[in-house]
Amino acid sequence: MARIKIAYMIDTLVAGGGTENQLVKLISGLNRGRFEPYLIILRPKDELSIELDCPVKYLNVKSLKSCKGITAIFKLSRWLKREEIDILQMFYFDSRFIGTLAARIAKVKRVIYSRREMGWWYTPFKLKVARFLAARCDACLANSEAVKKMVTATEKFPPGKIKVIYNGVDLQAPANGQRISRSDLNIPDDALLVGIVANLRPVKRLDRFIEAAALINRRDVHYLIVGQGDLRTELENLAVQKGLADNIHFYHTVKDIANILDLIDIAVLTSESEGLSNVLIEYALAGIPAVAFDVGGNREIIRDSHTGYILPPGDTEALAGRIAELLNNREMRQIMGAEAHEFAGNTFSVDEMVRTTQSFYLQLLDHSK
């Protein structure tokens, strides 16, 4: 039986992003006896691009509003037809725009778009375009029930054509075998440590994490912000303003997260928009109770009052209160962490994500016969 040719299209593929990491795990885990994967990168090659064991095509499109953006549609359509691609799966708005049009010109058998966030990027114009593109796709893959409901409501995509497949997450040992310690980060070994892993971007609302720390106002508690982004200086200034310069620490990395999580007693996520957060799953796999706002699929990962706490969006006082409650109760932290570890291990495995996705592809092509 001929292998199914499936092409994945994404804006860029660099380390650190949740969507990018999931795509890497999926392509790496595919049964190569049954599937033949290809990767299409919309933007020019980046020095940080992840290398994968499959053919890669770069379209070198920096902006949709360019001649190259328009011609890329026709170049891609010819490539899809020449390679006889059976399925095209797209991530992000720009790739989805070019990919959908190219696939329909090339008459690709099945066209799928992936949604992994709650539409924070919508503008009235982009929403109209998204609905236009959705009407020309055969299916949507969502990574949470919350995202599925959002796509149904906003893009008017039939719920029966949306498949929910949870992220597959595993915690990798440090790549170089070296482990980081609290002393490496100037954190006392006997301190209680509250941590957050997030890109330093506005949507992650790390200012609320610092504000909650100020409300807790305990000098024996330290706070660790792990991630990369442009807001570091702004956040450092806020920590100084709140009188927390000695208690809030920054670690600029997107690697060896399992190593960092070993140091943390309580984990937090303050995002104002999420699809299905990989880091919340990583917290759970590490056996750490988590506190997060009730946005996106957070409630599908945190079982409220069992593996952590889900709070009204943006309620910083409630955030501080729940963190303080966990700080004061070591036994509760241990019980919640153990339950989180068991739940995540049973629900968010990489093998299950790959297996379910492959079954979905086969089912989708059966329907095309």
Note down, in words, how this protein is organized.
The chain is elongated and about 65 Å long. Helix 2 packs across helix 3 (93-106), helix 6 packs across helix 11 and helix 9 packs across helix 12. It has 2 domains: 4-167 and 349-366, Glycogen Phosphorylase B (Rossmann fold), CATH 3.40.50.2000; 182-347, Rossmann fold (3-Layer(aba) Sandwich), CATH 3.40.50. It has 13 helices and 13 strands. The relative contact order is 0.12. The strands form 2 sheets. Strands 3-2-1-4-5-6-7 form a 7-stranded parallel β-sheet, with helices on both faces. A 6-stranded parallel β-sheet has the order 10-9-8-11-12-13, with helices on both faces. Helix 1 links the parallel strand 1 and strand 2 (35-41). The protein has 369 residues and is of the alpha/beta class. The two termini are 15 Å apart.
